[in-house]
Predict the structure.
Amino acid sequence: MSQLTLYGFLLCPYVQRVRFALEKIGVKYDYKEIDLFKLKQKEQAYLDINPFGKVPTIVINNQIVYESLPLLEFLENEFGSVFPQDNIRKTQQRIWTTYFDQNFISKMWGIFSLIKTKDVEGSKKLANELAEILRFFTLNSKLSERIKQNPSSYFEGDTLTYADFAIIPHVKVLETNYKIFFKSSLFEQIENQDELIQNFKTYYQNVVSSDSFKRAVTNPVTLPPQGDNFVLDELQYTTENFNYENLSETYMNKKFAQA
């Protein structure tokens, strides 16, 4: 049996991609927290594992692999159940995940400068720019058709797969920050609530409501031991009282105060 260790940071959506997949496919793993607030990723002990000083990283049988999308590919090759079996659908998922990465995810990081400056109008503008990307994605990936046929669908019907793991953690981060700092859902900020936006919202809610997503992100099955995450220790969270939104808010406020 392979011995797998995932190095990550609880609030990092790139780490959540991998943890989400691990929870869904049922692979046992050890989780080690790298506290980005304390810049643990820059310490030599971690750089010896990942010279880029980034998370996530997987160590398996004394071999090291990193970067979130290649790690999802690795999990497919090693354990299966990450992609649909059909090669056309595999390729289509890669295409649309790449599109989402290069367009939505690259643009969404602008939210943090808007939070820092408390730019409410800017947050609305960003939401509506992102909405155009969501419309294109939802229409042309045929996601809208699948949601209309099956309102409880994930990206690939009833089974969580690569696109879900790769896309939804980032949308969750963005949605959480909109709710915390602008007191409004990302989706509520979108002016034209057309069918494509409604169908993407339904898809998003389907994925974040899944047990695998909860175990990986919003109600993690394991938390780092005391001393491995400064903000987590300060809030004195356990798996019983863990609050993802409050942890996110506390972390962001500390980051802004630190800057």
